[in-house]
Amino acid sequence: MTKREARARARALRRTLDMGNIGREMARALFALPCWQQAGTVLAFAALPDEPDTAPMLQRALADGKQLLLPRVTGDGTMEWVNIPDLSLLQRGAYGIPEPPADLPAVCPPEDALFLVPCLAVSRDGVRLGRGGGYYDRFLAHAKGKRLLVCPSALVWPELPADTWDIRFPSHEILTEKGLLP
Questions:
Q1: Mean pLDDT across the stretch 55-70?
Q2: CATH superfamily of the domain spanning 3-180
């Protein structure tokens, strides 16, 4: 299977899933984890309709007094992180992704932050299948901090095609609606 075929298969399967419920179950599992409880800063993403709903996670981060950083796509194929104090400030940005407005300054994520990373699918050996832009691969190659890949259990597959630059996640860094992978 090629990456293009895997992305098409993942997108088709995503259309059959209840991403609202999956997001709520993921949030419940996340809030019980020590990495969430200890995090002062959370780097997350505002979900697209075909992704697990991250709104409960984003709302809880703000309610718990955590610094919430969300990505904003820049013109050079990278993204920058912006402190978002209120979710009502989000606007449709590149690719239709909800992101912070241009007038909020970018910040450097602290080294002890918790990163919640999106994907289309992941393999059992931790190969992350992204949307194909490489934004997260470029960011994660240099990021420091704890990270969790946010992936519905139906999209954890036995194997996926991988390139040398693809970031891998050990099973204890893959969060599904059932909790962390064993």
A1: 97
A2: NagB/RpiA/CoA transferase-like (3.40.50.10420)
What DSSP designation does 168 have?
B
Question: Which pLDDT band holds residue 144 (cuts at 50, 70, 90)?
Answer: confident
Nearest one of 120, 30, 98 to 66, comparing CA atoms: 30
Which candidate, 89, 172, 112, 122, places its Cα nearest to that of 7?
122
Please determine, for residue 75, whether its predicted confidence score (pLDDT) is greater than 80.
Answer: no
176 neighbors 151 (Cβ within 8 angstroms): yes
The number of residues in the chain equals 182
Torsion angle (degrees, nearest 10) of CA 69, 31, 96, 84? -30
Question: How many whole angstroms separate alpha carbon 178 and alpha carbon 182?
Answer: 10
Ordered by start, the domain boundaries in the chain are 3-180
Tell me, rounded to whole angstroms, the distance of Cα 141 from its chain centroid: 15
